[in-house]
Design a protein that fits this description.
The structure is a single chain. The chain contains three helices and no strands. The chain has one domain. By secondary structure, the protein is mainly α.
Length: about 110
Amino acid sequence: MYPSQPTEKQLLKQVLEPLLQDFEYWFSRSHSLLESERMSFLSLEEQTNLLEKIEEAHQEVKTAIMLFNVTDGQAGIDTNLVMYWHQLVSQCWAITRQWRIINEQLTIDDGH
């Protein structure tokens, strides 16, 4: 016997809810890092612009989570917006990775 197919509401809850939580987590972490550290491989303008994009996306995600919860999982999100958030998180991961590599190299060069 095959398992029953989830309803649209169940599918949204199973997929969208954890995805939104992941976006919230990564935007929060990225915001903290970009606000507390100077990325030497980015211009100040690039870092400021990225921080602004993250702040805006983070607010959008928080709003989406609120709407999702208020509507008991009935609210969906435009796929283009989700793709934009995903691209932004990917950009944040790349910057974090580069920042770690540079900091690890500095630690090695300092003999620590």
